[in-house]
Design a protein that fits this description.
This protein is mainly α. It has helices at residues 3-24, 32-35, 44-73, 84-92. The protein contains four helices and no strands. Helix 1 (3-24) packs antiparallel against helix 3 (44-73).
């Protein structure tokens, strides 16, 4: 397994975790943070909200770092030098001499009515 494949697996896992953490949050104050406890708990809702906020930023930072590191490990096996189209066009196009003028065919003029 190549290094790039390992990065792809890690990026996929982080993306899944980031989706789960974002879906648990509710911007209107609902979601997991409001269903875990009421105002009688000592900071329970606030701690849950802080944890979800910090985990979102942490996962986003890890995702960006993994993407940047994966570009460094990319070997570029899918380069244009292996293209069959480029090989066919370079061998099929004959070189024209520079001194020979290129003439275009002209259609016969039709009389105007």
């Amino acid at each position: 397994m190549s290094t790039f494949s390992i990065f792809l697996v890690l990026i996929t896992i982080v993306c899944f975790l980031l989706i789960v953490v974002i879906m648990v949050q509710n911007p209107k104050g609902g979601g997991l943070s409001s269903s875990l406890g009421g105002s009688t708990q000592m900071g329970g809702v606030q701690k849950t909200s802080d944890f979800l906020d910090k985990s979102t930023w942490t996962l986003a930072t890890v995702l960006i770092a993994l993407i940047l590191l994966s570009t460094l490990s990319f070997t570029g096996n899918l380069s244009d030098t292996d293209s069959k189209i480029i090989e066919n066009t370079s061998t099929a196009a004959p070189a024209t001499p520079a001194a020979a003028p290129v003439q275009a065919e002209q259609a016969p003029a039709t009389p105007a009515k």
